[in-house]
């Protein structure tokens, strides 16, 4: 099976699913508003992007094991390059989406802010893992660039042995000006024949082309590297702003709890005071009744006499 045709990269990846479910009991009357729709769209898009970056990371992990083997061809490296380019674009667009989500939930409820914070944390974790693996792949690409079996460039059509390494030919490669002068200016009987000079020149041009190709590929590898520092810097502002908002919400909740507790205590005190007041009222009423009965009896017996 092809490396890039395997969904999920042969690695267990988490499907973050849809966020079209209820978040903290958000009321249905506002469900159809533009703000709520935008919120759910951003959450779904970010979750999908995290899943895609996970797949790209799994692909890089498998590809790193094939660098330097028979599978390491120019086509293989081009696909690896495209995989990294697509992942980099996804990461950049997701960073922008997280910033939009952070601005959108500034005036939202606590559950929305917590959801935004969770997505941001998951994204940072995935990007960090992807970046570390990308650095390993880049190092291995550079290390195996000259030894990969499937990446040897075609020899020039002039024939002859493969370019030599070491000795006089290394001097040609390291000092091209001196090598050209040497090839053009030697005319003694012991000097190389014209055919040998032509072969050396072909070998020299071939090595120069190989070095230029290597430099170009190294620049391409370095261009593929993701600038995680800038991404984390962009997300840091969201963390600071939402962190302050969440702290404020938690503080308000704690204050509400304290106020509720105080209100309960006051209600209990009021109930106790009211109960004691009723008891005193009943006692006074009984006392008044008793006194009235005594007075009535006294008056009754006085009149009877």
Overview in brief:
The protein is an all-alpha fold.
Describe this structure in words.
α1 packs antiparallel against α2 (74-104) and α2 (74-104) packs parallel to α7. The protein is mainly α and 305 residues long. The protein is rod-shaped. It is 73% helix and 0% strand. It is built from seven helices and no strands. The chain folds into two domains: 7-151 and 228-258, Methane Monooxygenase Hydroxylase, Chain G, domain 1; 153-226, no CATH class.
Give descriptors for this structure.
305 residues, mainly alpha, Methane Monooxygenase Hydroxylase, Chain G, domain 1, 2 domains, 7 helices, 0% strand, rod-shaped, SNAP receptor activity, Syntaxin, membrane
How many domains?
A: 2
Q: Give the CA-CA distance, first to last residue.
A: 126 Å
Give the amount of beta strand, in percent.
under 5%
Number of strands: 0
How much helicity do the residues have? over 70%
Fill in the CATH topology of the largest domain: Methane Monooxygenase Hydroxylase, Chain G, domain 1
Largest sheet: none
Task: Provide a count of the helices.
Answer: 7
Name of the CATH first level of the largest domain: Mainly Alpha
The ordered string of helix (H) and strand (E) elements is: HHHHHHH
Low-confidence stretches: 6-32, 156-174, 186-190
* CATH architecture type of the largest domain: Up-down Bundle
- The residue-averaged pLDDT reads 73
Query: Could you say which overall geometry the principal axes of the C-alpha atoms support?
Result: rod-shaped
Instruction: Work out the radius of gyration.
Output: 41 Å
The secondary structure category is: mainly alpha
